[in-house]
Design goal:
The structure is a single chain. By secondary structure, this protein is of the alpha/beta class. The protein has a single domain, classed as Cytidine Deaminase, domain 2 (3-Layer(aba) Sandwich), CATH 3.40.140.10. It has 6 helices and 8 strands. Strand 6 and strand 7 form a beta hairpin. Helix 1 runs parallel beside helix 5. The longest helix is centred in the middle third of the chain and has 16 residues. The radius of gyration is 16 Å and the shape is globular. Belongs to the EMC8/EMC9 family.
């Protein structure tokens, strides 16, 4: 059960996920969260994120498995593992966690039982652009003791925190300079292996 756990996301991981969604505004997109679990603090530390798909591959388990194997191989040597999943729905006004996202979240829970799902919330995205809100533009979903995905309640908003409080300020700067154009996901890599899904140049 993950009810008492907190999740902390690093600025680079957070920005990468949102930029990926902004690059493909007419399709659903997804990605995985990488990090470690600090059992002493009860905190899942999300230190990086990998954009995965923006096409029909999003619901295909074989494509997902290929991606996860490469991601695990790369990050495992750094002491990091898969700790969650990111999803952005195709429709701007869709704020619900769909079955595709839940199924992939369940799959990642096989790697890490305390995994969370972060779902892009376009209402929060609009608020960020209008009033420079500092709260994350994603919803936090975790599994209960019955393995059902539940949205964190409003009074539980502190369960998801940004490691760098000014992450949204940096995100707005990246949006204003259209940095999303530089984001590479696994779909792009499968089409052209010269494109690096680690996105080493995004923050340069």
């Amino acid at each position: 059960m993950t009810g008492e756990l907190r999740y902390e996301i690093a600025q680079t991981a957070y920005i990468k996920l949102v930029l990926h969604a902004l690059k493909h505004t007419t399709s659903a997109v997804n990605g995985v969260l990488v990090g470690r679990f600090d059992a002493g603090k009860g905190v899942v530390e999300i230190s990086d994120a990998v954009p995965l798909f923006h096409s029909t591959h999003i619901a295909l388990l074989p494509s997902l498995e290929i991606a996860l194997m490469q991601i695990e191989e790369h990050y495992g040597g750094q002491g990091l593992t898969l700790v969650g999943y990111f999803h952005a729905n195709e429709r701007f006004d869709d704020y619900d966690l769909n079955n595709v996202a839940k199924n992939i979240g369940d799959h990642i829970c096989r790697y890490f039982p305390q995994a969370a799902i972060l779902l892009l919330d376009n209402r929060k995205m609009e608020a960020l652009l209008k009033v420079k809100d500092l709260s994350p533009v994603v919803q936090l979903h975790t599994r209960d003791e019955y393995k059902h995905w539940k949205l964190a309640k409003s009074e539980e908003k502190d369960r998801l925190a940004m490691k760098e409080p000014a992450a949204n300020v940096m995100l707005l700067d990246y949006i204003s300079t259209q940095k999303w154009q530089n984001i590479v996901d696994f779909d792009d890599h499968l089409n052209d292996i010269s494109k690096d899904w680690l996105n080493p140049d995004v923050f340069k």
